[in-house]
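Minimal example, chain plus pyridoxal-5'-phosphate.
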Amino acid sequence: MIPFIDLKAQQVRIRDDVDKRLANVLDHGAYIMGPEVKELEAELGKWSRTKHVISCSSGTDALVLALLGKKLRPGQGVICPSFTFAATPEAMAVLGASPIFADVDPHSFNLDARNLSAALQAGIDSGLEVVGIMPVGLFGMPSDMIAIRDFAQKHGLWVIDDGAQSFGASFNDVPVGKLADVTCTSFFPAKPLGCYGDGGALFTDDDEVAEIAISCRIHGMGKTKYHNDRIGMTARLDSMQAAVLLSKLSIFQDELDKRQQVADQYQALLSAHVITPRLTKGATSSWAQYTIKLPQDCDRQAIQDALSAKGVPTMIYYPIPMHKQAPYQRYPVANGALTITDTLCDIVLALPMHPYLTSEQIITISDALKSAMAEAK
Ligand SMILES: Cc1ncc(COP(=O)(O)O)c(C=O)c1O
């Protein structure tokens, strides 16, 4: 089976360096918030060009810390896509606030700024105070931040970018991390920049958000760990994960370049047969996923089975939109229905994507897909 994501090939490349860095942690013994954590935050700051980088325990916790930083509370609403991973609306819901689901653009898969007015109205009609927007850089490409920030500014809303999948990408030469008031990312192992466990970070130039997030990641600490200024959580990154991330960061740009080459080869081989992903003008992608769209009448399961029989794994991100998942059905939906989101859930298919796919493997995957499509006709 061709690996869907190949962490083994990457590990072979960095193993000596990771071993050294992990041995260092064992030697100094500062397992939590050790020197690697500080070093990683400084390196990520250079990458994102943001004043503050706050590492934490997961991408989901980064979102919660960001929302705590924005003082989100019950009765308030945040506009977000429904075509996303559960963590996006979950972070709002656990704080007692309400996600307001808006539709996405069929080409970029990302929040469609043209749907924001309807989402704002849906929130107001539900009696919510709408305070912010949380776009998601789905599959690795940032949202159209110019249009989203423009709308946010007109309506006095803040923007928190869920960059769990898009860290490493950019929009108009501005890196993910710097595109919104606050950006959150995930270091889950399968992410473009992943550790060997759970991890995440938030990025901001906002001093107040940074202060609250730093405090909340250690139980709302104040002057010391035993002065509690607010109610927080345990959301620290540990030194071992930071050590792994420092190692991976040293090859991150090279891996991003390699992912782009994989995407280019897929595009050349597949664009005449299926709808391949398109980059929005001005955007680069970290290619967390390579997601194609199949014709609407196509039997997606049959295609997946045919590919699997040839050793090609595929995934569906996401089969059910968030606004149709049981815990989220009570939240407002822009225009009462999200037709593009619903359609995408039926037709998307993610192909293997990682920097170590060989040209021959990409040809094998593409040929298998083409013959499965021909058989399905
Ligand atoms: C869009 C999105 N947001 C948030 C998260 C949450 O990240 P984590 O799994 O690190 O909590 C993920 C992770 O899969 C994600 O894909």
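The domain at 7-249 is CATH 3.40.640.10 (Aspartate Aminotransferase; domain 2). The chain has two domains: 7-249, 252-376.
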